[in-house]
Design goal:
Elements (H helix, E strand, L loop, with lengths): L1 H17 L9 H17 L6 H21 L6 H9 L8 H13 L6 E8 L9 E8 L8 E4 L8 E4 L9 E2 H7 L8
Antiparallel strand pairs: 1-2, 1-5, 2-3, 3-4
């Protein structure tokens, strides 16, 4: 009985989410303001963070998800889009796709004063969904000292903030979560 009720609630929630559209695209001024704020946040991670690297990372973090949004054909809320990807109706756009593509793009920059970390938040919601993201920290710092870079959360409009202050997710290192499932990644 409990299982039936849980499934009914999940279906109801999904139907409610189906009415939700993707987040509106930010205008040019808001994008520039967001890049400036994120640049300041990267620089505040450590005095050794190179200002040019901070600005470059911020620009990419804000603008690249908008390119991915078009590539992934985002038209709906993230959960609805996930359903379409899983049904084969859309090419990409699951949270791990966003995290993977963001990490690949950021690695092309070969940052010397910033480190990239992949993280996963175990499910703590009714639909039992994990969530993946990229976290950027100052060189030598761990993911907990970094900033969450999460373009999936708002369908290509970047969410960012300190890892420890993200009230929605309890982030863990991706390797740790995968190892608990018996999946081991090759050393980097």
């Amino acid at each position: 009985m409990r299982n039936i009720l849980t499934r009914a609630l999940c279906l109801g929630a999904l139907l409610l989410l189906a009415a939700c559209a993707a987040a509106p695209l930010p205008d040019s001024t808001s994008r520039q303001d967001e890049i400036a704020a994120l640049t300041r946040a990267f620089r505040a991670l450590d005095a050794e963070v190179d200002p040019e690297e901070a600005a470059r990372a911020a620009r990419i973090a804000v603008t690249y998800p908008l390119e991915l949004r078009a590539l992934y054909e985002i038209e709906d809320s993230p959960v609805v889009h996930n359903t379409k990807v899983n049904a084969g109706l859309k090419p990409r756009g699951l949270c791990w796709h966003w995290a993977q593509d963001m990490e690949r793009r950021m690695r092309q920059e070969d940052f010397q004063t910033l480190d990239l970390h992949r993280a996963v938040a175990p499910p703590r919601n009714l639909m039992r969904l994990e969530h993946s993201t990229l976290i950027i920290s100052a060189e030598g710092d761990g993911y907990r000292e970094g900033l969450v870079i999460d373009p999936w959360r708002y369908g290509g409009v970047l969410y960012w903030g300190p890892t420890e202050e993200d009230a929605r997710y309890d982030w863990l290192p991706r390797r740790e979560v995968l190892a608990a499932k018996g999946i081991y990644l090759a050393p980097e």
